[in-house]
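dude i think i finally got it to work??
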Amino acid sequence: MTTNDEMPRMLLESLSDGVYFVDRDRNITYWNASAETITGFQRAELVGKSCAHNILRHMDVSGRELCEDGCPVQATLQDGEKREAYVFLHHKQGHRVPVHVRVAPLVGETGEIIGAVESFSESSSRLDMLKEIERLKNDAFRDPLLGIGNRRLAEVMFDNLVEQGDVIGMIFFDVDSFKQINDQLGHPIGDSVLIMISKSVLSALRQSDLFFRWGGDEFLILLPNLSLDDLRTVAQRVNVFVERSFIMVDGQKVSTTISTSGTFAAPNETLESALRRCDTLMYESKNTGGNTVTVG
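look at this
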């Protein structure tokens, strides 16, 4: 038989949203099952630890680390106001996850703030292309490791955008020092780094943007109908999201950066021709030391 004291906890465990409580010192006192699913962190790993120690590393769209500057939980603990924000948390596997967070104060019997509760749900802004690939169950168009589109699908989607008369922005990037990661840590870790990168990049894109693995550690993004300023903004956000992602291997943080180019396909230009320009711009980024965006 369920007691009245057990009922609230059962309800929290049944929610599809992640939920966690913190005390006045931002120590995590409760972590529900959906929080485990969305973040990859089990409750035993987090309960008793302070979220101020940058565990989830909430980041805004500009790349600002909110645990260091602008934490909504800390602000609510100070003024008792409810807050909402769209942020990107750090998954245990290293990539960024877009979430909508809601924070509310926990108030004691005498009206004092004794803690805060945050609920968060994963953003539904996922790429339509990925949903379509999943619907078709067509492995011919999907990269087997990353689950995103492959080169063949990139060629098909580029031709479709040309036929529709869309303005086609392009972002092309290569992973910095990827051979070194493979040589020093092994190919399984290299694969994990590529998975981390692809998931973080997906979080940085608009719903209409199309993301492909061109081959090896080279990736292509097609961005229909956007301005030059928007293209530059998205390219820089992609760079920041990758730079701020990492995985842990035997207690060691493993991270990397990317060298990125951005351009527009000219009317009636072939994908091959546009990619040659992308490649030249990308190597300009590479030659500056990497972790750079070159738009032209």
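The two ends are 68 Å apart (CA to CA).
im so relieved honestly
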